[in-house]
Amino acid sequence: MGNFRRVPVGIVGASGYGGVQLVRLLMEHPEVEIVYLGGDTSAGKSFGDLYPHLAHVVNFPIEPVEPEVIAHRCEVVFLSLPNGLACQIAPQLCAKGCKVLDLSADYRFRDLTTYTRWYGIDRSDGFTAVKAVYGLPELYRDRIAEAQLVGCPGCYPTASLLALSPLLKQGLVIPASAIIDAKSGTSGGGRQGKVNLLLAEADNSLAAYGVVTHRHTPEIEQICTDLAGHEVTVQFTPHLIPMVRGILSTVYATLRDPGLVRDDLITIYTAFYRNDPWVRVCESGIYPQTKWACGTNLCYIGLEVDPRTGRVIVMSAIDNLIKGQAGQAVQCLNLMMGWDETLGLPKLGFYP
Ligand SMILES: NC(=O)C1=CN([C@@H]2O[C@H](COP(=O)(O)OP(=O)(O)OC[C@H]3O[C@@H](n4cnc5c(N)ncnc54)[C@H](OP(=O)(O)O)[C@@H]3O)[C@@H](O)[C@H]2O)C=CC1
Ligand SMILES: CC(=O)N[C@@H](CCC(=O)OP(=O)(O)O)C(=O)O
After folding, report:
1. Distances (CA, A) of 33 to 87, 90, 169, 171
2. What are phi and psi of 50, to 5 degrees?
3. What are the C-alpha distances in Å from 134 to residues 30, 137, 343?
């Protein structure tokens, strides 16, 4: 076997949905070895007690979070924690030389005053935060490859930005006309027991939430501003839909050239994403379904133009726990380590 050595990785927040998804992906990853699992209320329990069906895959104890210990054992650390915790741990991990991938919102914002305004959390880690790179490989591949600290995008921003990017980057639409109507399954809210996510509350029902206030709005706007080259505001409305996994984001925007037709846009999107193994542009007249993406790291994009209104309609479907969270983090890890971007990531889903 020669000198082959797997890279030691740790997962903080291993008991949560992001954490367990990371365990599943990293166990199948040929270049890494999970050597540490961390948590809070789950500390002291074995991973297999929490997830008996995975006990044959990983079954060692979840440990308390001690950055010194983690940095001693791990070269790479995934933080899958509620907002406001990664920013307390990442500075020490970075100072010790670890590569850090944060799945929360803590390292997504260039401007920490925007973060504090929308998240209500004060920060004192500005020195570390300036190093962070936004972990959307399709837009920031080269910067991610050089990064020590990556702030992985939110699930709604991932679906919405992949839908909008070609339009904004190529100046095809009036940016302020963009309306994002997105629907998420309940796993998007995490595993830590919220009443609106109970089956009895969410089943047989569909409702918007966070209307004009959702914290993914400034995250989407930050990247849209990058793409357009000037300040952009968008209208973003999320909905909770009675299913467990998946996001469908439907984006409407006014075309600058009303002569563009659906097939023109399909050609433009196919060219834009030609080097992106995790984006699939659908053929003419095909609209994506969340179940196609479920269990995969893929984002499916469908396109339509309404000649009556002059609007383009872009539909994007992802699995919120994979391309929207853990899978995207593994995709970023692959780039940071100089590995093939597809390593350890599923392209075949749960459904036929
Ligand atoms: N769910 C989704 O679709 C997406 C989520 N995200 C983001 O990813 C992050 C994780 O989300 P998700 O997996 O859904 O969350 P969960 O609620 O499922 O899990 C949260 C995890 O955080 C741990 N934790 C909480 N407090 C502490 C603490 N003080 N110290 C150590 N560990 C702690 C919990 O551990 P324990 O059980 O031991 O208490 C648990 O493992 C969040 O920031 C979320 O916003 C991003 C994209 C998509
Ligand atoms: C259905 C549901 O509740 N979804 C979550 C989105 C989770 C997420 O990605 O949030 P972060 O930006 O904190 O990572 C929400 O709307 O709060």
Report:
1. 25, 21, 38, 44
2. -75, -40
3. 25, 8, 20
Burial 6-25 (b: 16+ CB within 10 A, else e): ebebbbbbbbbbbbbbbbbb
- The torsion region of residue 33 among left (phi > 0), alpha (psi -120 to 50) and beta comes to beta
**For ligand 1, mutation pick of 103, 161, 323 (most atoms within 8 Å of CB):** 103
How many other CB atoms sit within 10 Å of the CB of residue 236?
A: 26
Which of 155, 224, 282, 299 is catalytic? The answer is 155
The 3-state DSSP composition of the chain as helix, strand, coil percent (nearest 5) reads: 35, 20, 45
Residue 294 known to be catalytic: no
Indicate if ligand 1 lies below 6 Å from the C-beta of 83.
Answer: yes
Distances (CA, A) of 20 to 3, 127, 287, 298: 30, 30, 30, 19
- Radius of gyration (Cα) for the chain, nearest Å? 20
For 139-150, letters b (16+ CB in 10 Å) and e give bbeeebbebbbb
Q: What is the token pair recorded at 175?
A: 């940016």
Cut 0.90: pTM above it = yes
| Per-residue model confidence as pLDDT tens digits over 16-51 | 999 999 999 999 999 999 999 999 999 999 999 999
ipTM over 0.90? The verdict is yes
In tens, the pLDDT along 210-255 reads 999 999 999 999 999 999 999 999 999 999 999 999 999 999 999 9
